[in-house]
Structure formats: C-alpha cells, structure tokens
Amino acid sequence: MIVTEPSAVSAEACGYNDAPKMYSESDVHSWGKVTSALHEANCTVVCQLWHTGRMSHSSFHSEAQIMAPSAIKVVNEVNG
C-alpha cells in the first residue's frame, strides 16, 4: 500500500510551494492517472489529506486570513 504525500483539501489549506492538492476537478483528474497506474500494478494507494493551518505562510493567501483552529501563532514558522 502506498500513502501519498499530503494533499491540500482546499485553496485555504495550501501552505507550501509545489505541494499536491486534492480539491479541484483537474486535481482529481491528475490523481486519477496516478491511482489507475498503481491499480494496474496491483497496488493499493491512499491519498493523505491535510490542511496546513497555522503552519501556512501568508504569502499563499493574498489578502485572506490564514484559516486555523487557533489564533496562536506557530513559534518557528516555516516559509514555503
């Protein structure tokens, strides 16, 4: 079984450069190609979903507020 790299669940969930996504029609289509190839090789694949929350950087969100379950900032923020 293969567990994929974490994929953002929405535009608000993105927080790193070139990280995979799983929320638009084109994302689903692209992942479909990968999963089809793996299924043909008798492999099970699971997409790991995520939301970067406070670990995201404001540069990914234009003027929008970063969405997170808490307003507490991350001490060592990582810039993508």
What does this structure look like?
The chain starts with a strand and ends in a 30-residue tail after the last strand. The chain contains one helix and four strands, in the order ββαββ. The strands form two sheets. It has a two-stranded parallel sheet with strand order 1-3. Strands 2-4 form a two-stranded parallel sheet. By secondary structure, it is an alpha/beta fold. The longest helix is centred in the middle third of the chain and has 16 residues.
SSE layout and pairing:
Layout: E1 2-3, E2 7-8, H1 25-40, E3 45-46, E4 49-50
Parallel strand pairs: 1-3, 2-4
**Spatial ordering of strands, largest sheet:** 1-3
Order of helices and strands: EEHEE
On the 0-100 scale, what is the average pLDDT?
84
Largest sheet: 2 strands, parallel
Compute the number of helices.
Answer: 1
Q: Runs with pLDDT <50, length 5+?
A: none
Shape: elongated
Give the tally of β-strands: 4
User: What share of residues are in beta strands?
Assistant: 5-15%
The Cα radius of gyration reads 15 Å
* Head-to-tail CA distance between termini: 29 Å
- Fraction of residues in helix: 10-25%
What structural class do you assign from the helix and strand content? alpha/beta
